[in-house]
Amino acid sequence: MTSGRLPVTGYWLLITVPWLVLSCARVQAPPGGPTDLIPPRLLSTSPDTLAVLPGFKGDVEFQFDEVVSEGNSPNFGLGTGDLEKLVMLSPSLAVPSVHWKRSRLTVRPREGWKANTVYRVELLPGLADLSGNRSKNGGVVTFTTGAALPTTTLRGLVVDWMTQRPQPRGLVEAILLPDSLPYRTSADSTGHFRLGPIPAGEYLVYAALDQNNDFRVEPREPFDSLRLASGRDSVGELWVFRHDSTANRLTSVAVNDSLSLLLTFTQPLNPYQRLPADSVELRLLPDSVPVPVLRLLTKEQYDTAFPFKPKVDTSAAARARADSLRADSLARARADSIRTDSLARARETLEIRIPGAQRRREAARDTAGTGPLRSRPAPFDKLYLRVGERLRPGATYVVIVHGIETLSRVTGTTRAGVKVPEAKPPPDSTKAKPDTAKRVPR
Question: What is d(CA 99, CA 68) in angstroms, rounded to the nearest whole number?
């Protein structure tokens, strides 16, 4: 006869199973209802910006209007968590302690708050809600634990020197001297940055392409630096590039034509350097006979000094084809002119009928200013060597370049060899031509 009591094992299953189910559950958006397409919106921050809080021991909080996602990668203090990648705490050098509390994020330094220090906590754009909508705006909290209120705001532009374009989301780090306190921020989508308010003083400002997303300027990453005197707030343009302590070397030497060679180097060259002709040696092997060198040119200089002149076909068929193309071009130009006039009249009519149409059209234009910048010359890794006598077909030469500089201003000497291809022999005019006359059968 069995009793009405549950076995011990069954009793524990009733208790543990719901707990296991609840522990494995993830916070998700409720089913049904309209689709959420609005990203989370920051409602408030704590403490208040520019507050003076001696002996502060609490957390910095970011409060949102809905539950936000804690991400797929947890925060282990290594800077690899999804939330850790969105928080920059200055002037701490350690990864901050970031905690998810449904609609709130809390941040504090792992080493604790230090007295008489100006702190800046920045939440970067990209925080997602439970529907995957990511915010395009962030937030900043600046307060002090007893130090004077900060008054300085640094402004500037991060530019990738290799592409000559503004670098979106470039890392900016301003180190306050002589205390070596680092304050960090990220450039916006157009490469501009605004770092402040931070304490007044002299700064060593760095900009870098943060390739591993650790919010640290590393020597292997492209970077640039500038020393900013106390009292100044305009950093200007920071042109980031990869620094290398090794000298440049020749990768290859190729024959460009009978009077020039194309030199290719392992690294981009200093675009401000102009090497004289006596900095290059060209020797004919095997006796190392010197060959006169006239100039060492960039591609733009070479194309200007020795432009390419194609052969002009002056036959009757070529002239007839050119006349036909010219007539077609004139006909297309007339059609384009008529179409342009029609569009202009339609645009004027639209502006008359709909007030403000011109203003809306001008506002829709791209004014981001992310095109190439021309305040510095573009780097290059090729030079053209113009010689004073024709290169001998089948001969071998060696090129020696002295004093060549990299972008990091490292100077060195490099050499490489090149073999001129053999010239194709002309056709044999003494060879009998085939008889094309019709033979009469006998």
Answer: 12
